[in-house]
Amino acid sequence: MEVLATGVQRDERPLLEAAFAPRHQVRCLETALSADTLPLAAGYEAVSTSADSVLDAPALEALSRGGTRLVAQRSTGYNNIDLAHAERLGMTVARVARSAPYPVAEFAWSLAAALNRRLVRAASRTRDFDFRLDGLLGRDFHGRTAGVIGTGRIGTAFARIAGGFGMRLLGWDIAVSPQCQELGMEYVELDRLLRESDLVSLHVPLMPSTHHLLGARRLAELKDDVLLVNTGRSALIDPAALVDALGDGRFAGVGLDLYEEEEGVFFYDKSLEVMTDDTLARLLAFSNVLVTSRQASWTAEAVQEIAATTVRNVDDYLAGRITECTLIPTSP
C-alpha cells in the first residue's frame, strides 16, 4: 500500500521511510494536513498525519471523498480529530497509544535543570565573551521537594530522576503508583503539593477536569521561587494567568514544551513575521521562561518507535484487526 504521510519533519523523514520500506510505500510531505493541502491526499487510502493537522468535519469529508479510509496519526494525542464524524463516515482512525516515557521525563528534567542553573543565559553570555557569574546563581536540587502532578508512566519516570537527585517527592493523581510509593513519594492534595514544592512538573492528560488545572487561584498557591515545568498538555495551565503571575515577579523559572494556542505556530519558521499572539510574545519576553515547540519526545528512539507503530497500524487496518491504538475501527 502507498501511504501519504503529512507534517513530516526533516529529521523524521528517513526514520519514517525506513520503517515503511519493507512492506509499504510512503510519500512524505513537510506540510501538515489542512484545508489548503487536503487535495494532496486525494487517491490515498491511508493517510498518516501529525498532531498539528486539522481534521475537523469538513476535512474528514474531503478525505473521504478522495478515497481515504484510514487516518493513522503519529502521536498519542488526537484532540485535532473529530472522531464522531470520522465514525459517521466509516473511516478507521488509529494513533500511537503508548510511547516511551523516558524522552519526555528526561526533557522535563532538562528544562528544570536549564532554568535552575540559568544555562541559556550563561551560554548566550559566553558567546559574547562575557564570563561574569552575576545573575546565574542556581540552587541545589538535593534536599528540596519535587511535586509530580500525574504519576503515570511519564510522571513515574520523572519521579525516578528527581529521587536520584535526592529530592523529597510529593504526588497527586486519581490513582496511586506503587512504583512511586517505592521511591518514597507521598500522595497529597493538589493545593498542598503546590504550596510545598520547589519544583512542579505536569504529567496529567487533558480532560474537562484538568483544563486550566493551574489557573490564577492555583498559581497563587505556588512558591514565589518555584520551578514550574509543563511537558504534559498545553491547556493544563491558563497562559493569561501565568503571564500575570510572571509579571508580578513570581517564579524562579517556567519551562513550557507546549502552548495552548500553538496551532499554526509550532513546527513553523515565524522568524520573519510579526508575532500577533500577545500572550506568547509576553511569555517569550520573560528571561526566566523557556519555551520549546513540542520537543520532549523528539529523540531518534522515540521517533523510530512512533514510525514502527504507525506501520503496524496500517498492517492492522489491512488485516481488519482492532488494537489498543485503534480509535475508530474498520467499518464492516
TrEMBL record:
Species this chain originates from: Actinacidiphila guanduensis
UniProtKB keywords: NAD, Oxidoreductase
Source taxon at top rank: Bacteria
Name listed for the protein in its UniProt record: D-lactate dehydrogenase
The D-isomer specific 2-hydroxyacid dehydrogenase catalytic domain, residue ranges: 7-322
PANTHER family: 2-HYDROXYACID DEHYDROGENASE HOMOLOG 1-RELATED
Domain D-isomer specific 2-hydroxyacid dehydrogenase NAD-binding: 111-293
Entry similarity comment: Belongs to the D-isomer specific 2-hydroxyacid dehydrogenase family.
GO molecular function: D-lactate dehydrogenase (NAD+) activity; NAD binding
Pfam family for this entry, one: 2-Hacid_dh
